[in-house]
Amino acid sequence: MAKSTTIAAIILGASAGVALLRFFNMPKEERDAFYQHLKRRTDMLLDNAEETVEKVEQFMDEIKYKGENAWIDKLLVLKKMFKDLYGSEQHYLL
């Protein structure tokens, strides 16, 4: 595994760990609201599956055009994708 791949895996794992810690440290009401938001948004994305696939393909193309070792740029594209797909005015984990 290349050094940049290892660093990217560590950053991604740490981000997931922090998100889980924040989720489980939320008050139950906020956690339930966040969970309901995720369910509603996922249902909406599934209802508009064709549009969702097009959006994801655009983001994947953007990732493909980044350099092979541009992991930070690729992670920023993923962040932008998830923000576009699941973003809301309320920031649950921030």
From the structure above, extract its key features:
mainly alpha; flat; 94 residues; single chain; 0% strand
Summarize the structure.
The protein has 94 residues and is mostly helical. The protein is 80% helix and 0% strand.
Descriptive account of the structure:
With 94 residues, the chain is mostly helical. The chain has one domain (3-86). It is built from four helices and no strands. The protein has helices at residues 3-24, 28-47, 49-65, 71-86. Helix 3 packs antiparallel against helix 4. The longest helix is centred in the N-terminal third of the chain and has 22 residues, at 3-24. The mean pLDDT is 84.
Report the structural category.
mainly alpha
Query: DSSP strand (E) fraction?
Result: under 5%
The largest pleated sheet is described as: none
How helical, in percent, are the residues? over 70%
Q: Quick check: average pLDDT?
A: 84
Number of domains: 1
Mass-distribution shape: flat
Q: How would you name the oligomeric state of the polypeptide chains in this document?
A: single chain
Order of helices and strands: HHHH
